[in-house]
Amino acid sequence: MGEGKAIFGSLGSASQVPSSYEIGVAVSTLDSRRIRLNKIHEDFEGRAKKKFELCVDALVRGQKGRAEVYAEEIASLKKLIRIISYHECVLEQVLLRLETISEMGQVSSGLRSDKAVRGYPQVASQICEEFADTNEVVCSRNLEELGP
To answer: Measured in Å, how far apart are the chain's first and last C-alpha atoms?
Structure first.
């Protein structure tokens, strides 16, 4: 919980508009965390494959008890891999939203000079609705892929 405040603490309250620099810092920090999470995911996948090979080897040698231990470890790793995959998806969504916010900030600053700001709140609310719909579709598909 403290880490979230550290990443987003510089973004201020909801009434303040974060600067492109603050958004850039948040994107950079989250991207490095995404890379680390991806590395952990790959490591767990590799460990699960090795444990599977050991499990098969134990079964071939007739060591049923050892094979069961490996199978339990594989099941635990697969659960962790599903959790990590879900969090990778969430992190990617946050990164995409922050990048979009940054781009919208650049667009809105250009609009302010053209007196076209009056329609901006309606456009922003429509964009938020579209994001919500897209988010719902992406999350439902990812949860279906992860399975129970």
So the answer is: 27
- Judge contact between 7 and 31, C-beta under 8 A: no
| Residues 48 and 78 sit within 8 Å (Cβ to Cβ) | yes
User: Per residue in 15-61, pLDDT tens?
Assistant: 466 677 888 888 888 889 999 999 999 999 999 999 999 999 999 99
Please write the tens of the pLDDT for every residue from 96-124.
Answer: 888 887 777 665 555 555 554 455 555 55
Q: With contact defined as beta carbons under 8 Å apart, do 30 and 7 qualify?
A: yes
C-alpha 143 chain-centroid distance: 13
Q: Is the pTM of this model over 0.85?
A: no
Tokens describing residue 61: 């040698």
Number of Cβ within a 10 Å radius of residue 42:
12
Residues 6+ apart with CB under 8 A from 12: 18, 22
